[in-house]
Amino acid sequence: MKSITAPNDPRQKAFTLIELIIVITIIGIMMVFTVPAISGALKGQKLSQAADLLRSQLAYAQLQAQKENAPIQIRFFQYRDPTLPGDDEKFRAYQLFRRAAFDRSDRNAGSVNKNVEVMEPIGPLRKLPVPIVFADSERISTLLSLQKTRGEVPYKRNRPLDAQFVAFDFEPTGSTNLGAAKQWYVTLVDEKKEKGAEIPDNFATVQIDPFTGSVRLIRP
């Protein structure tokens, strides 16, 4: 006569040690294949979002130059990120500026009006998300071959960083002050996948027409 196991017998609901090992092994195998894919997808998404934002900011700069009937300058900053130990100097941020004149004359002393031209930011410093940087090879980022100037980058409030930057202007006509002798573009890449003058598998290039000021995004 067969014995009948009670429905609430805990032995029916328990896993054996072998079953647990099999389940853990399967989960481990799935993580090996899925985690790199998810990580790559997230980095690709960061790259696309950073490139889209740059394109929209350049279009905004062109629009402001036409609206204000005055040049709008775009600066690309090269500096070492203090939050990343051992990090190299990379082009990793940009910002828009307008020229503004300020009266610095001393009226009490009866001096003549003295207008001094300064660069006034018209937007926040736009830092690329880690680990995205602008490829500093002049072959794939011709905009970074422009003359470098040293200045301060407003990294944090009351904590500017010493940095180098390159810059160009959008003119009131909508064109740029870039020379017509070559094409102008800047390429965004994963810093860990950067290959010098070679274009990595995943990249985003923002190209600017020096005559019309139109901006185009190129993705693989």
The named CATH superfamily: minor pseudopilin epsh domain
Shape: elongated
How does the helix and strand content classify structurally? alpha+beta
Count up the helices.
1
Measured on Cα atoms, how large is the radius of gyration? 27 Å
Order of helices and strands: HEEEEEEEEEE
Examine the coordinates and then state which fold CATH places here, giving the name of the CATH topology: minor pseudopilin epsh fold
Q: Unreliable stretches, pLDDT < 50, 5 or more residues?
A: none
What is the number of strand segments?
Answer: 10
Largest sheet: 6 strands, antiparallel
- Helix fraction, binned, reads 10-25%
Assign the CATH class.
Alpha Beta
Mean pLDDT level: 82
Distance between the termini: 72 Å
Description:
- The chain has about 220 residues and is α+β, with helices and mostly antiparallel strands.
- The protein has one domain: minor pseudopilin epsh fold, CATH 3.55.40.10.
- It is about 25% helix and about 30% strand.
- The protein has 1 helix and 10 strands; from the N terminus they run αββββββββββ.
- The protein has one helix at about 15-70, and strands at about 70-80, 90-105, 115-120, 125, 130-135, 150-155, 160-170, 185-190, 205-210, 215-220.
- The strands form 2 sheets. Strands 1, 2, 3, 4, 6 and 7 form a 6-stranded antiparallel beta sheet that branches.
- The radius of gyration is 27 Å and the shape is elongated.
- The N and C termini lie far apart (about 70 Å).
- The mean pLDDT is about 80.
